[in-house]
């Protein structure tokens, strides 16, 4: 049986490790270590977040899927499959920000473009107070920039513990970041106009608005916010021989968070189910750890942690991701 995997992120690589005879298709020749995108902005070293992918993977752009004929249409020709796992990651929705001069932070190239733009910027507005926005704001402040962090919710890191939220706020403010909470962005031009006032910034970076990639909708798959709908077994609600994994999918009548940990777990389960195991998908979000300046903190198994323990957990997550890709290269 020929299994084809679209995308070689956390979900795609973990799926491949469960079935090394499968075919992996990705337009890039490197794995993006999203944990370190902010490090790339800080240091300008792409190798911090770009890990070479196995050369056996097919480097091609996915143009679509003929689900009836069971063929993936790519820039390098058609690829037939018996079972298909779609794990194409996420993209940022910039359509809700009425401006052309807003930079996104999805990948290594984005990180390098932001770093280049920082050369002419004294002030930066970061839109979104999730993990990415909080870490980026701390890094920019350490680089000597005047930073405005704008968050639509009433607190930062709204999906994490109150302790993590409070700690993030205190650390950012100690670094000089002006945090604007409960502030919805209306438009971005010469000024960033929000429901709580206007901000003048030389550079605007969007770190929110995560959704599934637009190709999910273009393929005609049932979706919510471009995240393909799957059942409890991660099987597409539209086609029984198609599975979804990672950030590009969500379970029907439920919700699946976008995170590397969940992506790895869903990639493994999608492959095992494609091979015939038929087990319902369940996930565990064990840890969410951040770095603001030199401080590490976050939630570990439901409890707030900081300091050396938090740093060890974050470093271990990076280590596991690197080893996962290295293992795929050795198979």
Which features would summarize this protein structure in a list?
FAD/NAD(P)-binding domain, 28% helix, 8 helices, alpha/beta, FAD/NAD-binding_dom, 331 residues
What would you say the CATH architecture of the largest domain is?
A: 3-Layer(bba) Sandwich
CATH class of the largest domain: Alpha Beta
The biggest beta sheet, please? 5 strands, parallel
Helix content: 25-40%
Whole-number mean pLDDT: 96
Terminal CA distance reads 19 Å
Main-sheet strand order equals 5-2-1-9-22
- List low-pLDDT spans: none
Structural class: alpha/beta
CATH superfamily of the largest domain: FAD/NAD(P)-binding domain
Q: How many strands in all?
A: 26
Write the CATH fold name of the largest domain: FAD/NAD(P)-binding domain
> Taking Cα atoms only, what radius of gyration do you get, to the nearest Å?
20 Å
The total count of helices amounts to: 8
Beta-strand portion reads 25-35%
Globular, elongated, flat, extended or rod-shaped: what is the shape? globular
Task: List the domain count as a whole number.
Answer: 2
Give an overview in words:
- The chain has 331 residues and is an alpha/beta fold.
- The protein folds into 2 domains: 3-90 and 212-284, FAD/NAD(P)-binding domain (3-Layer(bba) Sandwich), CATH 3.50.50.60; 102-206, 3-Layer(bba) Sandwich (FAD/NAD(P)-binding domain).
- The chain contains 8 helices and 26 strands.
- The strands form 8 sheets. The chain has a 5-stranded parallel β-sheet, with helices on one face. It has a 5-stranded parallel β-sheet with strand order 11-18-12-13-14, with helices on one face. Strands 6-7-8 form a 3-stranded antiparallel β-sheet, with no helix packed on it.
- The model has no long low-confidence stretch (mean pLDDT 96).
- Belongs to the NADH dehydrogenase family.
- Keywords: FAD, Flavoprotein, Oxidoreductase.
- One of its GO terms (biological process) is aerobic electron transport chain.
- It holds the Pfam family Pyr_redox_2.
């Amino acid at each position: 049986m020929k299994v084809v995997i679209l995308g070689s992120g956390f979900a795609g690589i973990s799926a491949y490790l469960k079935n090394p005879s499968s075919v992996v298709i990705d337009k890039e020749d490197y794995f993006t270590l999203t944990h370190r995108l902010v490090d790339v902005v800080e240091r300008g070293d792409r190798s911090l977040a770009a890990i070479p992918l196995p050369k056996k993977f097919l480097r091609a752009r996915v143009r679509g899927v003929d689900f009836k004929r069971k063929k993936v249409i790519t820039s390098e020709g058609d690829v037939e499959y018996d079972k298909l796992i779609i794990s194409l990651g996420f993209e940022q929705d910039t359509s809700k920000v009425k401006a052309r001069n807003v930079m996104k932070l999805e990948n290594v190239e984005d990180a390098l473009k932001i770093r280049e733009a920082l050369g002419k910027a004294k002030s930066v507005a970061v839109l979104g107070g999730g993990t990415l926005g909080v870490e980026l704001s701390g890094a920019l402040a350490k680089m000597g920039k005047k930073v405005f962090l704008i968050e639509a919710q009433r607190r930062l890191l709204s999906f994490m513990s109150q302790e993590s939220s409070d700690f993030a706020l205190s650390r950012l403010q100690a670094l000089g970041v002006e945090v604007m909470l409960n502030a919805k962005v209306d438009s971005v031009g010469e000024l960033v106009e929000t429901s709580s006032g206007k901000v003048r910034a030389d550079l605007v970076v969007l770190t929110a608005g995560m959704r599934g990639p637009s190709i999910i909708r273009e393929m005609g798959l049932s979706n919510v916010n471009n995240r393909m709908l799957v059942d409890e077994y991660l099987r597409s609600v539209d086609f029984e021989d198609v599975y979804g994994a990672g950030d590009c999918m969500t379970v029907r009548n439920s919700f699946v968070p976008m995170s590397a940990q969940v992506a790895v777990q869903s990639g493994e389960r999608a492959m095992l189910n494609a091979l015939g195991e038929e087990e319902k998908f369940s996930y565990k979000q064990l840890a969410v750890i951040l770095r603001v300046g030199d401080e590490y903190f976050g939630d570990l198994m439901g409890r707030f942690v900081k300091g050396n323990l938090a740093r060890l957990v974050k470093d271990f997550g990076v280590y596991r991701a690197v080893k996962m890709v290295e293992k795929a290269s050795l198979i």
